Structures are given as structure tokens and as C-alpha cells.
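ok, trying the design again with the full structure, not the truncated one.
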């Protein structure tokens, strides 16, 4: 099986030769090819080179476009500062000192510099690797992008002080995310990931009233494009699982502080669980033997559909032998 065939079959409930491997590589991939991280984030050629090289060298079944949360934010008018090491910075969110949504531009994913760079990353994967690997596109979720536009602390305050305005802002974010996802699917992405990390920091009530309906609309739109949908919410999402179970996901990333068996119980047998080793203690500072044992244990606990992954990004500085152990073929168990 090719990597893409393996990945697609697992999500469709079919037998595979071994369990697909989908770890998130960002700074690690840049370091692996000796690239500065600012170049990895801003130049699709560098990002494609790094991810394809890692897929070949470590045995991944997926190549992705992730690097930082500010692709869409730049399209809304924000200045993004790129660094040689570390995540790009957005010193002044577009809505830092304003709540006037009429002044907020609407990014065009085929004209906005960073969004187009992402679309070109997808195109580069298709050109350089064809259908060998699954191609993961990415958009920010409604709460995550709203927080990027307003500033995290201020957005959390706004959720309590003016939930109606927050809803309007998130609706704008969903509209843009849908078109951004469409551009990536048209370019060749078979899966769209949704990063909505800030959602883990709000109450169940706020999530279900304000954020969940917008995630549902975004996911329905992506599904209508014919793509798989993957949700990534960093942190402890135990209190959100009842709502998440209504999203009709194909894949959910499970961070290390969340009980995988509880996630399986809540979302049911039709959603692929990806995770959930602690990226630091479970991968970076672990040993190949311990990593292999933990992956086998998690798979035995939750069963199919399952995807090998850490709870979040593989940290830079992870010993290559540890990533190889994480991606070592895990026999499929029917």
C-alpha cells in the first residue's frame, strides 16, 4: 500500500498493512534539512522539501502545511515577524484596539501572501510526491483565529463581556476558513485540519453555545468538498468531548493529558484517534523501547481506527531514533 492508501483505508474502516503514522513536524522538519524556521514558514519550497524528506527518512504517511497560527491573520492585515528559530510573531493583532468588524478586510486565499504560500505548499506536494502521501491542509478554527485577530487575553474577556460580538467575529473567521480550505482541497489536499487550541480554555457552556456551532458549520462545508476533517485542540478537552462528539469528524488529535479510552467512549468507533504521547517526556526525552511499548499499548486500548501520533508537535531536538521508533510499522489488528 502507498502511504495515502494506508491512511485512507484506515479512515474508511478497511484493513491496512500497518497503522498509519501522522506525527506533526514543524521546527523538527526545518532542522532536519538545515533550514531557518522563518524560511520554512514563509517559503513553500522549503516547507515541502522538509516534510517530504522527513516522510521518506522516518516513515510518515502524511505531509502537512502547518508551521504557525498566523497564515490567515496576515491576510487580515497583520504584520508577521519571522524568526530564524521559533514561531513567527504577531506583535499587533488587527483588532487589538478596535471592535469595528467593518474595517477588517476579507482575505483572498489565492492573493493573500501567506495563505497562497500554503496553497502552493499543497501544490508542491502533488507535483513532487504525487499520490504517495496523504496531504494535510490546515485552517484555524473559529475561536483560534478570532483570538489571533483580537489577542488571546482580550478575546477570552470578550467571550464573557460581549458574546454576541464574538459570535460575529467567529462567523467572519469561518467564512474565510471555508474558502481557504476550498483552495487547499482544489490544490490537492485530501484532509483539512482545524486548529482550535484556545477552545480548551473555555467552559463547556461557552464552547457549546458559541464555538461548537461555528466548528460544525466549518466541518460541514469541508465535508461537502469531499475532504476528510481532522480536529486539533491542544490541552485538556475532557469537558468538551460531548460537544466534539457531534462534529462528524474523521480524525481527532488527542493531547497527552486526555484519557484516550474516554475519548473513544465519547466519540464512538467511527472516528480515528491520533495520539497521544507527551511530546516532551514521551518522545523527546524518552527511549525507542518505551515509545514502541506506549504506542502498542494505546492501540490495544482504543482499537481501530487509530493513527500513530504524539499529543502535539514533535519537539525540535528530538533524537532521530525516537522519531523512527514512533513511526516503526505497527501491525494492524482487526
Amino acid at each position: 500500500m502507498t502511504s495515502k492508501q494506508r491512511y485512507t483505508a484506515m479512515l474508511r474502516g478497511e484493513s491496512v498493512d500497518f497503522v498509519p503514522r501522522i506525527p506533526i513536524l514543524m521546527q523538527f522538519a526545518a532542522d532536519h534539512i538545515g533550514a531557518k524556521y522563518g524560511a520554512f514558514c514563509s517559503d513553500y519550497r522549503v516547507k515541502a522539501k522538509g516534510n517530504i524528506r522527513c516522510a521518506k527518512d522516518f516513515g510518515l504517511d502524511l505531509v502537512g502545511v502547518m508551521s504557525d497560527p498566523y497564515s490567515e491573520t496576515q491576510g487580515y492585515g497583520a504584520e508577521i515577524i519571522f524568526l530564524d528559530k521559533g514561531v513567527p510573531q504577531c506583535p499587533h493583532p488587527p483588532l487589538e484596539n478596535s471592535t469595528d468588524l467593518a474595517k477588517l478586510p476579507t482575505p483572498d486565499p489565492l492573493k493573500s501572501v501567506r495563505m497562497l504560500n500554503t496553497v502552493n505548499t499543497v501544490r508542491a506536494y502533488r507535483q513532487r510526491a504525487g499520490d504517495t502521501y496523504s496531504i494535510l491542509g490546515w485552517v484555524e478554527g473559529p475561536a483560534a483565529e478570532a483570538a489571533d485577530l483580537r489577542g488571546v487575553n482580550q478575546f477570552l474577556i470578550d467571550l464573557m463581556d460581549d458574546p454576541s460580538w464574538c459570535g460575529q467575529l467567529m462567523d467572519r473567521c469561518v467564512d474565510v476558513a471555508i474558502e481557504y480550505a476550498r483552495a487547499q482541497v482544489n490544490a490537492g489536499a485530501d484532509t483539512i485540519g482545524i486548529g482550535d487550541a484556545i477552545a480548551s480554555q473555555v467552559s463547556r457552556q461557552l464552547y457549546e453555545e458559541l464555538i461548537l456551532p461555528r466548528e460544525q458549520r466549518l466541518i460541514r462545508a469541508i465535508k461537502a468538498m469531499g475532504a476528510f476533517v481532522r480536529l486539533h485542540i491542544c490541552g485538556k478537552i475532557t469537558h468538551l468531548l460531548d460537544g466534539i462528539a457531534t462534529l462528524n469528524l474523521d480524525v481527532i488529535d488527542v493531547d497527552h493529558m486526555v484519557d484516550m479510552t474516554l475519548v473513544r467512549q465519547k466519540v464512538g468507533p467511527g472516528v480515528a484517534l491520533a495520539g497521544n504521547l507527551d511530546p516532551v517526556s514521551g518522545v523527546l526525552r524518552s527511549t525507542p523501547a518505551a515509545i514502541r511499548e506506549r504506542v502498542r499499548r494505546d492501540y490495544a486500548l482504543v482499537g481501530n481506527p487509530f493513527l500513530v501520533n504524539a499529543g502535539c508537535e514533535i519537539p525540535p531536538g528530538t533524537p532521530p531514533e525516537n522519531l523512527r521508533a514512533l513511526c516503526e510499522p505497527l501491525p494492524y489488528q482487526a
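Keeping the full-length input from now on. DSSP finds 15 helices and seven strands in the chain.
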